[in-house]
Amino acid sequence: MKLPRAKVWLAAAAVSAVLLVVLMVCNRRTGSLTQRLARYRAANQPTTMAELDAWCAAVPDADNALAGLLEADAAWRSSNDPNLITAPNAVRNPSRGEVWPAVFREAAEAELASNAGPLAQIHAALQRPRSRYPGTLKAGMSGTFLAHLGPLKQATRNLGLEARWAAEAGDSDRAGNALLAQLGTARTLEGEPLLIGYLVRIALNAIAIDAAERVLSRMPLPEASLLRLQVACAAAEAPDSLTRAFIGERCLALDELGKPTAQMFAAFATPAGPGTPTGNSLPLVPLMLAQLYDLSGLKRQDSDFYLDRLDEIIQAAAGSRSALPAKQQQLEARLDSLNTWRGKLRPLSRMTLPSLHRVLPKELRSVATLRCAQAAMAIERWRLAHGGALPASLNELAPQYLSAVSEDPMDGKPLKYRTLAPAPGYVVYSIGEDGTDDGGTERVPASGKTNGWDYTFTVNR
């Protein structure tokens, strides 16, 4: 027997009302957003994108390293010769320690000569005292376009080309200066208060470390260059950068959480950029569910859970890096609760927290490889003073070349080192994400292996 349409709607409304009451009871108020905001402000931390924009002091173009780098990038004209290692269609990238074929050296020399002006602009820009991204953060998720990040990555690659070509040409001073400049491009992003800027910064540091491995595998650098690089690698850890990035993400979240629920979901579910929704763009049924999510108190519970996890990450980022693995495990345990029935009622947290959580392993890897690079610079200084011989252990470097053997952030123990005999060279390494000493085994990205390798800095010379 078919029920009248009115009775169907009445039954649906009754079920919805009961469900709403149950959800409201199950999701009693656990905290005040007003109190939370007061706590953030008491710690001198911004709580909105407008406050975040003001938190990051403006920098005049004349003092702004980023402004100069963008000008240099606009002036750079690449031949995209396939024998050029930075070309999108490059034939191949010579392996570490390999002597470049003549066509590779010639392509690099021609690229650098034809862009001598922009290259000089890059080096000059990095002498400016401060940096700040162009534009404003006030527009929030739908208006924050960080168009400078691509040019910065290209500038870092161009400096890597200069460093590696200089090593092939036997110009150790130029090679050292170009490596130092690569770390300088990453340094311009240290103050950026958004996660994307932080992620690009550690990617630029990784590009610089790769170039340093390749340069040192071809030739020794002067003591002065090695010392400057050692100091720059230590400074590149920049622990405050991760804290600022997550404070910025929290401001972004707080701004979105204050909007109508449907608009909030549309913003979080759609990548920022041209065409990002600016109003309620959800279909009718999802829109009704969004309203139920709000009225039932689920939105508040979800928001509290999300912001609590962000606060935990910010607190962890402000602490020692050797404590991060334990903090990461604690966070993983909390995120496991999102797979329960109650957790599935937290769509915002389920949508965003897993990707934020994956940032912590990236921070640990970046810090570990930077510390390996610092130790390698100290080893190279030791070699200069000992006729090219290698130390038997990292302990021989202290205190003259290294104040103390750096701590592996993965386990809190000293970094490890071994020579590559009978092959020339050595490797300094961290035990890596799997927590196992694999003897300095390097990661082979194409293998797809998730364990069995370490975080390394290798010199084949």
Provide a quick synopsis of the model.
The protein is mostly helical and 461 residues long. It has helices spanning 5-26, 33-42, 49-55, 65-75, 102-114, 116-125, 149-169, 172-187, 195-216, 223-235, 239-257, 261-269, 284-295, 298-317, 324-336, 347-357, 359-385, and strands spanning 416-419, 426-430, 455-459. The chain folds into three domains: 5-42 and 243-356, no CATH class; 59-131 and 139-234, no CATH class; 385-461, no CATH class.
How far is the first residue's CA from the last residue's CA?
86 Å
Find the structural class using helix and strand composition: mainly alpha
Report Rg.
Answer: 26 Å
Number of helical runs?
17
How is the largest sheet built, in terms of strand order?
Answer: 1-2-3
Sketch the topology as an H/E string, one letter per element.
Answer: HHHHHHHHHHHHHHHHHEEE
Largest pleated sheet: 3 strands, antiparallel
Number of domains: 3
Strand content: under 5%
Q: Helical percent range?
A: 55-70%
Label the overall shape: globular
The number of E-state strands comes to 3
Q: What would your notes on this structure say?
A:
This protein has 461 residues and is mainly α. The chain has three domains: 5-42 and 243-356, no CATH class; 59-131 and 139-234, no CATH class; 385-461, no CATH class. Helices cover 56% and strands 3% of the residues. The chain is built from 17 helices and three strands. The chain has helices at 5-26, 33-42, 49-55, 65-75, 102-114, 116-125, 149-169, 172-187, 195-216, 223-235, 239-257, 261-269, 284-295, 298-317, 324-336, 347-357, 359-385, and strands at 416-419, 426-430, 455-459. The protein has a three-stranded antiparallel sheet with strand order 1-2-3. β1 (416-419) and β2 (426-430) form a beta hairpin. α4 (65-75) packs antiparallel against α6 (116-125) and α11 packs antiparallel against α14 (298-317). The longest helix is centred in the last third of the chain and has 27 residues, at 359-385. It is globular and about 85 Å long. Residues 22-30 and 271-280 have low confidence and may be disordered.
